[in-house]
Amino acid sequence: VRAASGRCCLTVVCLFCVAVRPGACPKPQGLGLCVERCRGDYSCPPGQKCCSNGCGHVCMKAII
User: Fold this and answer.
1) Residue 41 DSSP SS3
2) Which of 20, 22, 37, 42 keeps 20 to 30 A from 4, CA to CA?
3) Which portions of this protein are annotated as coiled-coil regions (predicted)?
4) 3-class SS at 42?
């Protein structure tokens, strides 16, 4: 199952569709911290996307 503006994710509990926010992530600048501060766009504030920082993932302002 796939939403028109999202991708579907399989979890231990259930299958659900997660909206992908518009825009693109900025390109990583070197190696970032190896931490996972977000799991997808849905876990970031409005106007931000969950992006790679070169090692982990953090919320960043989307490039429109």
Assistant:
1) helix
2) 37
3) none
4) helix
Strand partners, 43: none
pTM: 0.71
Q: Helix (H) and strand (E) counts for the chain?
A: 0, 4
pLDDT band, residue 4 (cuts 50/70/90): very low
3-state secondary structure of 43: helix
Whole-angstrom distance, CA of residue 26 vs CA of residue 64: 10
User: Tokens for 12?
Assistant: 């231990």
Residue 31 pLDDT: 85
